[in-house]
Amino acid sequence: MSAESRRPTKYFPRLPGPPARRHHRGTFATSKIDSMPLVRIDLLEGRSVQFLTLLSQTIHTTMISQLSVLERDYFQIITEHKPYQLLFSRDYLDVNRSDKHIFIHMFLSAGRSGEVKETFFKALNENLMRINAEGEESIRREDISVILTETKKEDWSFGNGLSYLTIPKEQWK
């Protein structure tokens, strides 16, 4: 996705260009708060701020459209590594990976079907390949690894030492 396809929100910084179209919801039968994810993005150092911003936004908007994640449920950790800190097989499963490989590890509430996950993987791969950041090469489909780790409601605390997803909203402080 290009900078032009991003709409600014309180979660995403403003990038040049017109706002993007609204995304439709994917199929996921649970209350919306239960779908809050945490995304870890690992890649080799040296990418531009614009590229990292577009990468982050593209992942999140694809999660909104395919996994029914709310826009406000935006929690990501981007870690850039030196080459000796990010080690991976360059040809595992006969996939030719380069130094531009990106690992995306998502922790999210359980409940999505295999079909929903497969559709998400394809959509994310296609969307990431469309990122157009100045001075950056396009992302190759072979350079995207996505790992989904499903969790239970009681596995999350969002602050104050409370497991918000397991207690009534009236008890939130």
Secondary structure layout:
Layout (H helix, E strand, L loop, with lengths): L37 E7 L4 H19 L8 E6 L20 E8 L4 H16 L14 E8 L22
Parallel strand pairs: 1-2, 3-4
Antiparallel strand pairs: 1-3
Helix pairs in contact: 1-2
Task: Describe the protein's architecture and organization.
With 173 residues, the chain is of the alpha/beta class. It has a 4-stranded mixed β-sheet, covered by helices on one side. The model is unreliable at 2-7 and 14-33 (pLDDT under 50). The chain has helices at residues 49-67, 114-129; strands at residues 38-44, 76-81, 102-109, 144-151. Helix 1 links the parallel strand 1 and strand 2 (76-81). It has a single domain, classed as Macrophage Migration Inhibitory Factor.
CATH topology: Macrophage Migration Inhibitory Factor
Biggest sheet strand order reads 2-1-3-4
**Span between termini:** 39 Å
CATH class: Alpha Beta
**What's the story with the biggest beta sheet?**
4 strands, mixed
Which percent range describes the beta-strand content? Answer: 15-25%
> Runs with pLDDT <50, length 5+?
2-7, 14-33
User: How many beta strands in the DSSP annotation?
Assistant: 4
Class by alpha and beta content = alpha/beta
Q: What is the overall shape? A: globular
Helix content: 10-25%
Rg measurement, Å: 17 Å
